[in-house]
Amino acid sequence: MSDLIVRVAARGEGVTADGRHAAFAAPGDTLTPENIVLPGPHQQAPPCRHFPQCGGCQLQHLDDESYAAFLTDRITGALAAQGVAAPIRPPALSPPRTRRRAALQAESKGGAVTLGFSEGASHNIVDLRDCWILTPALFAVIAPLRKLLARVLKGRARIHLTEIDQGVDVLIEGKIADGLAAIEAVTAFCLANQIARLAIDDGIGPETRWEPDGVTITLGGVAVPFPAGSFLQATREGEGALVAAVKEAVGGATVCADLFAGLGTFALSLPGKVYAAEAGRDVVLALQAGAARAGRAVFAEHRDLFRRPLTAAECDRFHAIILDPPRAGAKEQISQLAASNVPIIAYVSCNPSSFARDTDILCKGGYTLDWVQPVGQFRWSTHVELAGRFRRT
Ligand SMILES: C[S@@+](CC[C@H](N)C(=O)[O-])C[C@H]1O[C@@H](n2cnc3c(N)ncnc32)[C@H](O)[C@@H]1O
């Protein structure tokens, strides 16, 4: 008997109602008893020639309707596992070719360099000749960078590319040849491609080799210095959707805290006074400098919120608290929030499972989850981002 694919599982396979899994299957496809996938109405022709080898995208075979449903299902499923239900809004999907940051792999072997994303669950690198997710500016750098690396790279490296205010920021984590020829090759590459900054980290932290003008990223209208390799929301559209959700969540609050603040994506987008806490030292210094220069009422503190979360009493000083922790969530901070009386919590998350676990703690502490806004800024990958509003009831 053939079975209909009804949903897409967390790791990207299609699943039938009775739990059979099939790779590259979309909802509406049919899975035959021989495990052959017969395409249905939600299969689309994957646009990229590197699909499915490239680990950058796992879901290019889904049309936007089923990709959006995948994001929603992941959140609904994680919340249901904790016994929580909440209204889930239609996902905000970033268009193709808008990813402004990427971590690629490079390997130099016999004078040739392979540069691209890793294959899924493997160390093999897909040599990127086509990409439907990177911004045109980032993709334009790939071919000249491959040529440069063929001259200077020793062994393997991780390459971080980020599009910032001045252009493309390149961070090479790996070993580069010494000597004048290598220095000249790096300079010529940067000049020819109008690179904003090039830094090399061979194990002791990023060393800048090229930066004609101080580099910045503009957040909430403020140009913030951009430390090499810093976190940035993956697309401008994703950042816009998350900022809009956070602003809506906090409403008219004029005294807010932004926890896990990074360079100030949310802190600098809010009116009124903002306390920002962040564990990255360079990042806090950058936020302080940007906010001070722009005359913004942002007080940024270097603070490890896992070891030293804001206490419930500290939380009570704010009208609203925003938090955007790493994938593990923020169990320690959430326990303090659950014991606080802060009226509104805007929780931004990149992991539905830790979000659902933290939601359960907040709900048991007397908060209600009003809504969740899913954000698909890692288009065609299995990453799910979201913002949710909690209200003390
Ligand atoms: C998902 S990023 C969010 C950054 C920022 N909200 C944004 O949107 O650009 C998480 C941030 O948490 C910071 N972080 C990680 N562990 C932390 C900790 N224990 N205490 C405080 N901040 C931490 C990271 O440095 C990073 O900037």
How many strands appear in the DSSP assignment? 21
Instruction: Give the % helix.
Output: 25-40%
Catalogue the ligands: S-adenosylmethionine
CATH superfamily of the largest domain: Vaccinia Virus protein VP39
* CATH C-level class of the largest domain: Alpha Beta
The stretches of 5 or more residues where confidence is low (pLDDT under 50) are none
CATH topology of the largest domain: Rossmann fold
Tally of distinct domains: 3
Biggest sheet statistics: 8 strands, mixed
- What structural class should be given to the helix and strand makeup? alpha/beta
Shape: flat
H/E element sequence: EEEEEHEEEHEEHEEEEHEEHEHEHEHEE
- What is the number of helices? 8
Compute the CA-based radius of gyration: 22 Å
The CATH architecture of the largest domain comes to 3-Layer(aba) Sandwich
Biggest sheet: strand arrangement: 6-20-21-19-18-15-16-17
Q: Compute the separation of the termini in Å.
A: 50 Å
Binding site for S-adenosyl-L-methionine: 233, 260, 278, 324
Keywords: Methyltransferase, S-adenosyl-L-methionine, Transferase
Active site: 350
Pfam families: tRNA_U5-meth_tr (PF05958)
Q: What does it look like?
A:
It comes from Sphingomonas psychrolutea. One of its GO terms (biological process) is methylation. This is RNA methyltransferase. There is one protein chain. The chain has 393 residues and is of the alpha/beta class. The protein has three domains: 1-43; 80-94 and 232-392, 3-Layer(aba) Sandwich (Rossmann fold); 101-215, Beta Barrel (OB fold (Dihydrolipoamide Acetyltransferase, E2P)). It is built from eight helices and 21 strands. The strands form four sheets. Strands 6-20-21-19-18-15-16-17 form an eight-stranded mixed sheet, with helices on both faces. Strand 11 (197-201) and strand 12 (207-210) form a beta hairpin. The model has no long low-confidence stretch (mean pLDDT 97). S-adenosylmethionine binds at residues 231, 233, 260-263, 265-266, 278-280, 283, 304-306, 324, 326, 350.
